[in-house]
Design brief:
211 residues; eight-stranded antiparallel beta sheet; alpha+beta
Length: 211
C-alpha cells in the first residue's frame, strides 16, 4: 500500500526542463521559507493551506494555482494539521525564458518576473491538472508529454502577458552563496554555524569579500 505522505516525483532525462512533484497528504510536509532556481507553479488539489510569498500571505484552497518566480522566497504549509494535497511543477528558467521570447512575449531573451501569485480561474486550473496527470502516466509517450507542457505554459504565459514585468537582477556575492547553499540543502537541517563556515569558504574562493 502506498503511503500518501510520501512525495511522488516525475522526472525524465529527455525532458530536463521540467520536473513534477505530487503530494497526496501534505500534513507532514512542511517547509521553512525557501526559494528555487526554477520557476514553479503548483495546484492545490485537495484541502487548504497557507501560501507565504515574499512578504504576502494567501489562504489557498483546492482549485487554486500558485506561481513562484525563481529566487523568490516562499512556503506553503498545512493549516491546523488539516489534510491537503498538491501538484508542483518546476520549470527551467532558461527554457521558459526562451519559450516566452520566441512567442513574442519578451522583448529580449532575458527573464522577467511575473507579478501574479495566485490564480483561481478553472480554465487554467483544469488543464494544469490534466497536464500533470499526463506526466505521471507511464503509458503516455514522450512527445505527448513535451507537447502538453509546452502548450500549457505558452497559453498561461500569453494570458499573463498583459501584466507589468521587470527584468530580474540576480543576487550576487554573499547573498548568492547563501541562496545556492540553501537550495542545495533544502531537505537538511543547516545550523547557523555550519552555514557561516560554508558560506565563508565559498566567499573566499570566489573573492566576494575584500580585506
Amino acid at each position: 500500500m502506498t503511503d500518501t505522505r510520501t512525495p511522488i516525483f516525475w522526472r525524465d532525462a529527455r525532458m530536463p526542463h521540467a520536473e513534477l512533484r505530487k503530494i497526496e497528504d501534505g500534513r507532514q510536509v512542511c517547509y521553512a521559507l525557501h526559494s528555487h532556481r526554477q520557476w514553479s507553479i503548483g495546484a492545490i488539489t485537495a484541502g487548504e493551506s497557507t501560501f507565504l510569498y515574499r512578504s504576502d500571505q494567501y489562504h489557498v484552497i483546492a482549485g487554486t494555482l500558485v506561481l513562484m518566480n525563481p529566487e523568490w522566497p516562499h512556503a506553503c504549509n498545512p493549516i491546523d494539521d488539516q489534510p491537503w494535497a498538491y501538484l508542483m511543477l518546476y520549470v527551467d528558467t532558461g527554457w521558459l525564458t526562451q519559450l516566452r521570447f520566441e512567442a513574442g512575449l519578451l522583448p529580449t531573451a532575458d527573464w522577467q518576473d511575473l507579478e501574479t501569485a495566485v490564480i483561481t480561474n478553472p480554465g487554467q486550473y483544469a488543464p494544469y491538472c490534466a497536464m500533470a496527470e499526463c506526466l505521471l502516466a507511464p503509458e503516455r509517450n514522450l512527445l505527448e508529454k513535451q507537447s502538453r507542457v509546452a502548450e500549457y505554459l505558452l497559453d498561461l504565459m500569453q494570458s499573463l502577458a498583459g501584466q507589468p514585468g521587470q527584468a530580474t537582477k540576480r543576487p550576487s556575492g554573499a547573498l548568492a552563496a547563501v541562496a545556492e547553499h540553501l537550495d542545495d540543502h533544502c531537505t537538511e537541517e543547516v545550523s547557523s554555524t555550519k552555514m557561516s563556515s560554508t558560506i565563508g569558504s565559498r566567499s573566499c574562493r570566489v573573492g566576494i569579500f575584500s580585506m
